[in-house]
Design goal:
Layout (H helix, E strand, L loop, with lengths): L4 E6 L4 E6 L2 E3 L10 E6 L5 E8 L7 H12 L5 E9 L11 E9 L15 E11 L4 E11 L19 H17 L1 E2 L14
Antiparallel strand pairs: 1-2, 2-10, 3-4, 4-5, 5-9, 6-7, 7-8, 8-9
């Protein structure tokens, strides 16, 4: 269970956000690209990715940009399905900032030789938040990834049914993390982004 969060500095302190205390900064383990911050559950398989990307203008609409970024992170070999899209509001960002979110799942292809690879998930639930910073020509993407791996925190049969709105305990934990990110994410240094300053309010 995720009960404890800690204020975490991202991108050299330019962004702050509360993340689960039990999550580890992946950059302490391996190299991470400069435009990403990745945190991994030290006692499980879920992860949080915060990514700075150039603002997508083609396709032109916010909804299409959301789909573009989702498809960009999905492995081409995986099947995927978007179950829900919505809009969100983050209290520490400028008013009228477009913020879109989705819940989706990806499923890896079956193995051709009948052998199951170690730690291969049956599916991965994805909670993606797209923050569109138009004055900074930036899209900020926050993704909570929740793999469901047989024998490792796998929910009981029937506990997960996205068509019926049953998210299961692991995805519910992911929603709790996402909501805490929404509540606490704050840009401390707008110079991090191309375009510089925060909107006038």
């Amino acid at each position: 269970m995720t009960d404890t969060f800690k204020l975490t500095e991202l991108f050299g302190g330019a962004i702050t956000v509360s993340l689960p205390a039990g999550y580890t900064d992946v950059s302490n383990i391996r190299e991470v690209p400069d435009h990403q911050e990745i945190y991994l559950d030290a006692s499980g398989f879920s992860s949080i990715v915060i990514e700075i990307a150039e603002r997508v203008t083609d396709p032109p609409t916010d909804d299409e940009a959301l789909r573009f970024h989702f498809e960009d992170i999905v492995d081409e070999q995986d099947s995927s399905r978007v179950w829900r899209t919505d809009i969100a509001s983050l209290p520490h960002l400028p008013p009228n900032t477009p913020i879109l979110t989705l819940l989706a799942t990806t499923t890896p292809p079956p193995t051709t030789n009948g052998n199951t690879r170690a730690l291969t998930p049956t599916f991965v639930a994805i909670l993606l938040t797209l923050i569109r910073l138009e004055p900074q020509s930036t899209d900020l993407i926050v993704t909570v990834n929740i793999p469901h791996i047989p024998g490792h925190q796998e929910p009981t049969d029937g506990a997960v049914n996205f068509e019926e709105g049953k998210l299961g305990s692991l995805v519910q934990e992911g929603v709790k993390i996402r909501d805490e990110v929404w509540r606490t994410l704050e840009v401390k240094d707008w110079g991090l982004f191309e375009g510089g300053k925060e909107d006038e309010v």
